[in-house]
Protein 1
Amino acid sequence: MDGIYISGGLNMITDKQMKALVELTQQKATRDKYRGRTTWVRRWLFLHLLIGAKLSVKDITQLRICDVHLNCSVNYIKSFKGTQIIIDSALASHIREYIQIKQVRGEPVDSHDYLLTPSVDGRPYTRMSIYKLYHGTLKNAGIQRMKFNDFLMSITEVQRLSD
């Protein structure tokens, strides 16, 4: 079903736009990884956590390495509220790879450190830095300006329709 999802009058992202967004983010992340940069590597993990684990922005910004359990019979993430969210093997592999990249770059990777940080200093993302990350990602994907909350709501709506 490809179309704009309307929920309460909000401008929603289409399946086609979401697919383009994911593909572009993956491609740019792969390019950045081989060039020794992490801008798109971080953006891709953020998007993958958002759509793959259905984590909230707050969960992602507060996610610490100790909250990610990858060496269990079932891989899961402990959310900000303490809920265990089962993740698939693709997302688990992606997180493992990202932690390795952080380690190689000399970024903090102790269990108490934040998983996703905007820079090497280890401080977590702020709401504003997530907003900038989001706008940069959508702009590169050629998606019209969309309010951040509309984008988050549309991801939830697309996931609900695909479940």
Protein 2
Amino acid sequence: MAHTHQHGSGSAVELLERALDAQGLRHTVPRRTILDVVAAMGRPFTPTELTEQVALADPRIGRASVFRLLQLLRQSGLVERLHGPAGELYTLCLAVGHHHHVTCTVCGRTEAFVLEDDDAVARAVEQVGYRMEQHVLQVFGVCAACRGGEHGEVPSS
């Protein structure tokens, strides 16, 4: 079952603003600009890419402000950190509940998905003598669009 990460900017920005409210932070113009950029990214991004995009939107917003708000959004669960082939990435994630990620190695699109039997991971770990405390599962592949599929159809390999 897949859950998309990127929703319309309006709903994403509203959720991001609620995260500010929950932290007791004021709605300032710089914060709104950063939220707009995060919502518009449309793919996983590095902190440097976010900083560059924010600078294009408003050069007066400093790197420290971007990093502070990114950390806050991560703590609120609306932005998640991923580990990509090229290093650490962040993505806006509006999926609810425990989920995992699959990232296209061509276009960078990331989707959240839920395993029907997430306990299988714990059972596999127990079979090699460990007790699982936590896990992160991230999958890399090529999405249907990058493989030439249309309307969700996945061409056969």
